[in-house]
Amino acid sequence: MTQALRLGIAGLGTVGVGVVRIVRRHADLLQARTGRPIEIVAVSARDSSKDRGVNLSDYAWETDPVALAKRDDVDVFVELMGGENGPAKASVEAALTSGKDVVTANKALLAIHGQELAEKAEAAGRVIRFEAAVAGGIPVIKSLTEGLAGNEITRVMGVMNGTCNYILTRMQSQEKGYNALFDECAELGYLEADPNLDVGGIDAAHKLALLSSIAFGTKPNFDGIEIEGIQQISLDDIHQADDMGYRIKLLGLAQRTARGLEQRMQPCLVPSDSPLGQLEGGTNMVVIEGDAVEQVVLRGPGAGEGPTASAVMGDVCDLARGLKISTFGRPATSLEDATPAITGLPAPYYLRLGLLDKPGALAKVAAILGDAGVSIDRMRQYGHSDSTAPVLIVTHKTTRATLDVALDGFRTTDVVAGEPVALRIEQV
Ligand code: NAP
Ligand code: HSE
Question: Which terminus, N or C, of the chain has the lesser number of Cβ atoms within 10 Å?
């Protein structure tokens, strides 16, 4: 009989349990598709007594994931613990140096240490696969490295964090508060161990760094990404955007420009009737543009047990079939250093300010914008509390650097209360 592919799985949380379920449920299907049995031989997690809702009695238990990674009876080490350092990094390194291929869903680890780990894998003649790390169940890594390998990629953009999209869309449709929605994301298994990574835009930026590397042949450059989270978005912003025909999305974009590699992950207004504008709940969308294919749009569930485990198993099946592709789609030693673009292309911006109710306040705000060189397209004062009146301004196209001068002016003037909100308007 053909030799089985033997898995060691470290991490039995949302994703790990999902992988165990698929291996058990689809043993025959997986064997039929790959030509060999896929078996789990050993697992690891922190708490061996926890009921995880799956039968683990057939598998050896390792308390130390590094020991699991080194086991002689493991062919593929599946890292599903998370974290950019600690046991995740130590065990992936141990697996590679012990001659095992690695499958991981850990975008934080690869966005920060991907270059070093990819070089280590290549030196050991092994591979690291990470489909589950980007956009959950969407096979976006496979699309970029394989299906679109004949293209010069010009731009990659999209919505890559299920938690943020769930919160932003449910705030609008159900008028629920941030905290209640956060609890729902936890129940759905969407949240990172540190949910600040989700709402702070960092998790999505980790994913963008990985896509950029494959798309543009550069070393993953997480530090070169301009990152803003969704924490400052209020229900008011969502309603104001809606009134103007827009939805607010945490949008990532990476493109090569004459100024260098532009990479940003920030909440933006996108037209409500665009495919990105219509994305609901935990769904992700990645748009890839290449010189030959023009545009490919990939859409699907971006987080949660089933979709993420599905992506892990896609990688496992590739390894069972003997398909081995360099971590970032080309030899790690050939990846270039990315030169980050300093300022992005101009765009219109949505601004929301809390204006103190004083004579001449609006004129001062207009003067600050004018002095900075920002031109106003529309301005509206609405609602009212005793002391402040929210003001909504839509600017003509300007660069973020120019706008930042005006935002600094708002922070130091005596007529603006609180932190101004500034969101880019993208005509996607
Ligand atoms: P999770 O539910 O928090 O599970 C983490 C698992 O790792 C738990 O079983 C935990 O053990 C185990 N673990 C943590 N530290 C450990 C250690 N030192 N030694 C051994 N085991 C340890 O996380 P998850 O949502 O499954 O996410 C796992 C990875 O997938 C992360 O990298 C995440 O970013 C990524 N990911 C998640 C999703 C998603 O939708 N959830 C989607 C894509 C990618 P205990 O159970 O005993 O505490
Ligand atoms: N926390 C991530 C999200 C999980 O919400 O998208 C999927 O990577």
Answer: N
Region 346-373: mean pLDDT is 94
Q: How far is the CA of 414 from the centre of ligand 2 (A)?
A: 40
Query: Strand ranges (DSSP E) for 184-340?
Result: 226-227, 246-257, 260-271, 283-290, 294-301
Q: Which CATH class is domain 349-425?
A: alpha beta
Residue 198: CB within 6 Å of ligand 2?
A: yes
Name which residue sits closest to atom 7 of ligand 2, judged by CA. Answer: 303
Q: Which of 69-73, 147-151, 415-419 has the lowest mean pLDDT?
A: 415-419
DSSP code of residue 99 = T
Superfamily of domain 5-139+310-334: NAD(P)-binding Rossmann-like Domain (3.40.50.720)
Mark whether 207 is an active-site residue: yes
Our answer on whether the CB atom of 422 is closer than 6 Å to any ligand 1 atom is: no
pLDDT at residue 253 is higher than 70: yes
With a 6 Å cutoff on the Cβ, whether 45 touches ligand 1 is yes
CATH class of the domain at 141-301 = alpha beta
pLDDT of residue 143: 98
Q: Which of 107, 120, 142, 207 is an active site residue?
A: 207
Question: How far apart, in whole angstroms, are the C-alpha atoms of residue 325 and residue 331?
Answer: 9
Distance CA 67, CA 64 (A): 5
- Give the number of whichever ligand sits closest to the CA of residue 162: 2
